[in-house]
Amino acid sequence: RHSRASHYMMAISYVDNALWDLRGRVFGAPVFRLLGGPTQMPVRVYGSCLGFSIDPPLAGKRAAQLKKDGFIQQKWFLGYGPGDGARGMDLNVQLVKELRAAVGDDVQLLFDAYQGWDLQYSLEWCRKVEQYRPYFLEEAVPMSDLESFIRLSQMTTVPIATGEHLYGRWEAEQFFKANALQFMQADPEWCGGVSETVKIANLCSVHGVKLLPHCHNIHAALHIVASQSLAVCPFGEYL
User: Are the C-beta atoms of residues 173 and 157 closer than 8 Å to each other?
Assistant: First the structure.
């Protein structure tokens, strides 16, 4: 999954995060305070529902329980793609419909397609589910296909998210300049560490994009969210 940039940037990320941790220990302060926060405490998170059943009735039941537990943002994973034909598309749409019915209008529903779709499939799904108000569609197409991200952002009202597989602010800037996304999901364990993710947050503020850090390293991600303006980082991710 990291073949676009090998593993060198991930190694740099590990070193950078370790140095921030060490600095916090030396000064006796949490990293979010060293970065200038907290701007929110506690940090709000969305429930990332990887591993739960995506059978619509079962997912609806789980979503309703998560709402009771306080998760007013939930991300669900779309298990079918162009190779699954019309039935797969129907199941992807039914999942959205069932979740919206289960949680009502006051929960934001986020969706992830694993980079498994193409532009035409993505547009069809967006058209069929717009009425259920998805908060965003994540990684609809492969990260290397910037042109499809641009066109998708232009051709649908569903906000577009991506970024966990971007490696540094220079790659992120290409998406910003092209208006190819509304939500950036840089991962501080993969994109260059806390230092690089904060620089990406600064670029987000320039381009009017929200940063919701991918939470492979939840401690690093939440310290970043806690240090940034709510206008830039409104909440984080919790698996």
Answer: no
Q: What is the pLDDT of residue 4?
A: 74
- How far is Cα 204 from Cα 182, in angstroms, rounded to an integer? 9
H or E element, residue 237 = strand 236-238
**Helices 193-207 and 218-227, interaxial angle, to 10°?**
40
DSSP H stretches of helix in the chain? 8-27, 31-34, 56-68, 85-103, 119-129, 146-155, 169-177, 193-207, 218-227
Which residues of the chain register pLDDT less than 50? Answer: none
What was the pLDDT predicted at 143?
A: 93
Contact 121, 88 (CB under 8 A): no
What's 161's DSSP letter? E
Residue 62 is predicted with a pLDDT of: 98
Residue 44 DSSP label: P
